Amino acid sequence: MRVALFATCLGDAMFPAAPKATVQILERLGCEVEFPAAQTCCGQMHTNTGYRKQAVSSVRTFVDAFADYDAVVAPSGSCVASVRHQHAMVAEGDRRLSRAVARIAPQVHELSEFLVDVLGVTDVGAYFPHRVTYHPTCHSARLLRVGDRPLRLLRAVRSLELAELPAAEQCCGFGGTFALKNPDVSVAMGADKARHVRETDAEVLCAGDSSCLMHIGGLLSRQRSGIRVMHLAEILASTEGIDR
Questions:
Q1: Distance from CA of residue 189 to its chain's centroid?
Q2: Span 131-237: which CATH code?
Q3: DSSP H helical segments within 31-94, as ranges?
């Protein structure tokens, strides 16, 4: 299967380990993975902030970059949700762009749903001898409805001990520009999430979005908790002899 990696702008600029790990997993499972160099931001930030017209060029760039692939995979529930639920709205009024979005958007997948639903795999051959807790990010849980797919993948990782996160369904408070516009509320929500993470006695907090891990991880670091944050892809890419 010819698969395109959608690295996302956050992954490309700040957290490259997640997209790199995504490629490692997919190639291990026999996929032919390519990185279309023309890709840029999906336009989510503009759309969420009310600048829908300004997001049109980002959507157009997206559909052009990913037009010729069997599937597009991203290590981000948030960005995939934007493609599948916002791009059609942004493209309204432009017939050509709307048709392109309608064709490509269903082929864009968050990593866990691609592994479980498209490839039919839960055991990806990973090894990670640590106690891990999982935070279901809002967009992956509420818009993509990935459900227990990430947990099924984590349970299949050899030597991994999975700890249940209290109040897991609660938002971490990041919300993209919400954290900038409402910093006090954002930090309070993040503090609640960090407290619940500490209650698990986990060594590692895992999630499917680097943005949420950045927010929670910053709080855990300032609290000197000793808890690492890692993207789901990084754990699934780990093998015996490679302890991330």
A1: 20
A2: 3.40.50
A3: 44-48, 52-65, 77-85, 87-90
